[in-house]
Amino acid sequence: MERLELTVLADLLREAAGDDEAAVLDEGTLDTSFLDLGYDSLALLQVTGVIERDHDVLLDEEALAEAQTPRQYLDLVNGALAARAAA
User: Fold this and answer.
1) Global pTM?
2) Per-residue CA distances from 14 to 1, 23, 47, 50, 64 (Å)
3) CB of 44 within 8 A of CB of 64?
4) pLDDT confidence of 2, banded at 50, 70, 90?
5) Is 81 in contact with 1 (CB distance < 8 Å)?
6) Residues 25-39 pLDDT 10s
7) Residues 70 and 32: beta-carbon distance below 8 Å
8) Mind listing the pLDDT tens digit for each residue in 61-85?
């Protein structure tokens, strides 16, 4: 089964933010809000577009708006990937 790993999400966010000095995402920051980590909604929107394109999956916009932390975002994306794989 295909999964989005935290390291990949971290790379995508840094690239979208255009900031190599952006906050580090690791196991210790999984429950920290994206805003507290320095990532705004535009960076998340860009990352979502990349994930949807690269993984051929459509993510629920309302659920994405509720995903305020890396853990919540990963759970949402990986749930969508699992559902697509099961179909």
Assistant:
1) 0.91
2) 25, 8, 10, 13, 19
3) yes
4) confident
5) yes
6) 899 999 999 999 989
7) yes
8) 999 999 999 999 999 999 999 998 8
